[in-house]
Design a protein that fits this description.
Helix 4 packs parallel to helix 5. This protein is an alpha/beta fold. The strands form two sheets. It has an eight-stranded mixed beta sheet with strand order 4-5-6-7-8-9-10-11. It is globular and about 55 Å long. It is built from nine helices and eleven strands.
Length: 279
Amino acid sequence: MHIVLKRGYVLSERISGSAVKFSYAEPEFFIKEKREKGIVIMDLRGLYKFTLVDYPGHIACIVFTGGCNFRCPYCHNAALVLDPRSQPRVTETEFFNFLKSRKGLLEGVVVSGGEPTIQPDLADFCRRIREEGYLLKLDTNSSNPEVVYKIHRDCGINALGVDFKAPSRRYSELVGNPSPDLGRNVHEMIRFGQLENIELDIRTTVHKSLLSFSDLEEMHAELAVLGSPVWTLQQFNPVEVIEEALPGIATYEDSDLIGMARKLGPEVRVRGLTGRFLL
């Protein structure tokens, strides 16, 4: 929901558990005005200066944005989601100075979170990354598809990390967001990537108490309608997750995930905790 207020501010719903919170997002001309005054817009809360895992096939860095509109129980970036101000801030100046110093060494930048698409200045931020000559991979939960479409129109997205959380009928239940469009949005994001020839990293974090094999079969059927793109089952990471009890609940072994992937089809892969593909 968006309500326009005086001076063009927009009041946007943010979902936290069962409670609805509100935060301000600003239209582009106020973003430009703030940038001209040197006011930081992007809420950057972490930077890994080197990764071979997050953008497969490329040497990259990964920058994390604060805040998210989902509350996935298994999320291992809980601090970024629940209390981003607890994490050290990286200014845009620091970040782009870093990119300038790594030209010729890094190939790409992964923008992750949290959920990057809730950041009001994301489109301009991504454009600046592309202008520095880097490939751009954007990780998203697909809840704000128009933001992603605009970024691609403006500067070109090279890769999308698409979090495919659950079967459509269970989406809201699993991510803690009541929007009825979440499953459809993910399908449309995948279709968009296919049509635009954007490299896709479609992935699902799997915990036994949250997703059964029948759930995975249902998700596989949904992907089949989209042409059966490559799909990665990810091992649950039990570190600092949102649902504190989850690490104490039995989940699948790597061998279980490999067995399920083989039953589902040849386009299904398994990624372990180190980021290596096990299948």
